[in-house]
Amino acid sequence: MNTTAVHVLDILLIISLLSLAAAALLTSDARRSVILFMAFGLVLAVAWGRLHAPDVALAEAAIGAGLSGALLLAALREQPRRALSGDAKPVRERERERTSIDVTLQLTVTLLCVAVAALLVWALAEAFDRGPQDTLAQAVSETLAASGVSNPVTAILLNFRAYDTLLELAVLLTAVLGILALGPARPGYQAAGPVFDSLVRWLVPVLILTAGYLLWVGAHAPGGAFQAGATLAAAAVVLRLAGHRTAGLPAGQTLHLVIAAGVGMFLLVGLSLLVLGRPFLGYPPAWAGGLILLIESAAMLAIAATLVLAFLGGRPQPAAGLSGEKRQC
Amino acid sequence: MLTAQWLYAMTGCLIVALGLRTALLHAVLLHRLIGVNVMGAGVFLMLIAVAYRGPGVAPDPVPHALVLTGIVVAVSATALVLALARRLTGEQDNG
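^ Those are the sequences you sent over. The predicted structure of the assembly is below.
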């Protein structure tokens, strides 16, 4: 590819990103806003692919655009005329009042945002002036051979900065506990018709296989527990949309074990290493690859279960009592 | 400094400002939530642009790992906000 072609692609991507973001934020129709936001996420994933960040591009396409969008759409489906969507009249009126009264406030906040953008531009300009700071990147490439994997992003997430990832999984666990505590899941969907049903029979196994592949390939190429977990969650979302009430999640105690599996396996490995006289999560180089795969497998299941529960919006309901199972939209 | 890197980083700044404005000003929760998410995406774009080292050169993997973590945390926070909002409207309907 020559330089000019790359620049045209860049300009097109940047224009699309800015206009999709602005359109998603400025429309007053909630559904349109969500769909534009999803489109924005997909274009963002393309831009990251172009900036040589395939790991992040995969995660953005699956999680940022796909599952976030599914979450927001599911929330909208449940409450099409409530405060959440802005369709309800009182909210509209309140909004109109607010816009008419608070012109000064709007102007002030807009100026504040412009100032924030200017500050960020200034900070970035300073950073770019100093040239690339590659101390950490060099440290990563020098120690990569001892990390047990050859994909630097996986090495950072699961080895060099394993503490961060452990705490990230703890954040996920906290969020899912909050969701479980807040109430039952949304009502399910109608059973799929024959066409969708046969599609589901193909799609779900393919998604599960893809998840397994992404988990395995993450050791040496773009992929890993997050992308795999998101793909697995996508399979469950498809099941749920086809009328499977629990979206393939296990029930009761098993579900709790799966949710805690990521943090649990991380702690188990870390503490076992402590007992063996190593530092916490300081893998012996010979075992590092295996241990990382072990932790990633557990993390993938936990991430998938978390994302599916987020999509359900609460505790999965037992299969009995089908009376509430009516499609609402 | 590379032109592409600079362009994408500036786009990230603008997207942060756009998202922040909606998050602060919009009256409707769902729009605010999308605003926060767009703002996060802008920050991620800045980080990915900073990590870029030009064609044929391996990018800095550390910001990539940060952004991966950020994406997953952002979606779980979004899910928690939606669950809280759902409970809140439920309470208002009952009370």
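Chain B has a mean pLDDT of 90. The two ends of chain B are 59 Å apart (CA to CA).

Shout if you want it in another format.
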